[in-house]
Amino acid sequence: MALFKRCSFCVVTGASRGLGREIAVQLAQGWSQQGVQSDLVLVSRTEKDLQAAKADIESSSPGTSVHVIPADLQDLSAIHEAFSRCAAVAAESSKKHEQFVIVHDAGSAGDITQPIVQQTDPSVLQEQLALNFTSMSILTSLFLSRFTSGERVVVNISSLLAKVHLAGFAMYSASRAARNALVGTFAAENPDVRFLTYTPGEFHSL
């Protein structure tokens, strides 16, 4: 947990369940153990699950203020509003944040029963790309534009499917590989920001 130190502000997408929720829990516990004061913003589409995650984190991690923002990141028209709500948490907090972090875990494998040759509906393909790639790109840009001082960290949760190709996962694999490439470009353009790509079993720092 050495990466996440001092007074921190962190946004975790896809935080209502699975790996995203576990990351949020582990971050909060690490901060609490180190006496770090933090604001943790949980973003996902299911408010009930977000509230459950918030209750778990607050009960086990004193010093962490947990904020819930329900948002469907597949709906690109809602991205700016969702981020504005995240930024408002930082602006209204009494804490003096020295570090700003965003963890991207939101994503979906989509319908894995259909081979790619049967996936010819542009709207369906666009929806999957919107959640797995486009929303992450926009949120990262908004994050870097809004938070311009202090230590900034962008964490991309990737997948081995960005490298390993399995039947039924064509669009998911393509979008995860595209995210990895996007992070590399963000890193090249923003040398003062730390970018991390984490694939379960692998870890890359740019």
TrEMBL record:
<dbReference type="GO" id="GO:0005737">
    <property type="term" value="C:cytoplasm"/>
</dbReference>
<dbReference type="GO" id="GO:0004757">
    <property type="term" value="F:sepiapterin reductase (NADP+) activity"/>
</dbReference>
<keyword id="KW-0521">NADP</keyword>
<dbReference type="InterPro" id="IPR036291">
    <property type="entry name" value="NAD(P)-bd_dom_sf"/>
</dbReference>
<dbReference type="GO" id="GO:0006729">
    <property type="term" value="P:tetrahydrobiopterin biosynthetic process"/>
</dbReference>
<keyword id="KW-0560">Oxidoreductase</keyword>
<keyword id="KW-0963">Cytoplasm</keyword>
<dbReference type="InterPro" id="IPR002347">
    <property type="entry name" value="SDR_fam"/>
</dbReference>
<protein>
    <submittedName>
        <fullName>Sepiapterin reductase</fullName>
    </submittedName>
</protein>
<dbReference type="Pfam" id="PF00106">
    <property type="entry name" value="adh_short"/>
</dbReference>
<dbReference type="InterPro" id="IPR051721">
    <property type="entry name" value="Biopterin_syn/organic_redct"/>
</dbReference>
